[in-house]
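User: Is it possible to get a 3D structure for a protein together with its bound compound? The compound here is nickel (II) ion. I've pasted both below.
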Amino acid sequence: MNQNELISNTILFVRQQLENAEGGHDWFHIERVYKNALLIAKEETCNLQIVQLSALLHDIADSKFHNGDETLGPKIARKFLESQNVSEQDINHVINIIENISFKGGNFEKNFNSIELDIVQDADRLDAIGAIGIARTFNYGGFKNRALYDPKIAPKLDMSAEEYKNSQAPTINHFYEKLLLLKDKMNTTTAKKIASQRHHFMENFLAQFYAEWEGEK
Ligand code: ADP
Ligand code: NI
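Assistant: Yes, that's possible. Here is the predicted structure of the complex:
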């Protein structure tokens, strides 16, 4: 099978897997991450096929939507890649990326390293910030029936991901828990540049949000 065929088969497979996904973790998220990954990869020396496959397969069964099961996504990805006769070595690399890409409250020790992981992780993180990041965050909050903001529940920086998940913390808190931390976690120069601009946009958004919350004077 040639490389183009493998990528188009993967696209078809992922679209199908994500047919009923929540708006922030749907096929369009994957498409944006894929495009970001290609953009970043242009500036790096890397195995493009690994970048493409990992970007496409990184969220096919997010544990948030599958009772916390973190093994399901990697299992489905492996089965698919085997069906496409991808080499064992490449499958292992893609699975390692999928298992190590996530933010997990920032307390997560990466136990695998590769430039391809760095690229796809940056691409995924870029989609968590800026205008799209804001939209995805409020969409997820709505999906969880959370309040937008509650001045009585001040955003807490020191809340663990687990505590947060089980709380009814308003969606604005997620900015402090994750979104505003991402710009300093980018791996590549390309992503750092884009992240800095998107970070600035989020800071402006928050300032405007709080001002409007208080009402016009
Ligand atoms: P990662 O793949 O880095 O672990 P997630 O899948 O947890 O990231 O989050 C991706 C996006 O989903 C977040 O950037 C955010 O927009 C939304 N999201 C996830 N968890 C929450 C949450 N607790 N509150 C609001 N939005 C969330
Ligand atoms: Ni993702």
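The pocket of nickel (II) ion (ligand 2) is lined by residues 29, 33, 58-59, 124 (CB under 6 Å). Residues 3-213 form a domain with the Hypothetical protein af1432 fold (CATH 1.10.3210.50).
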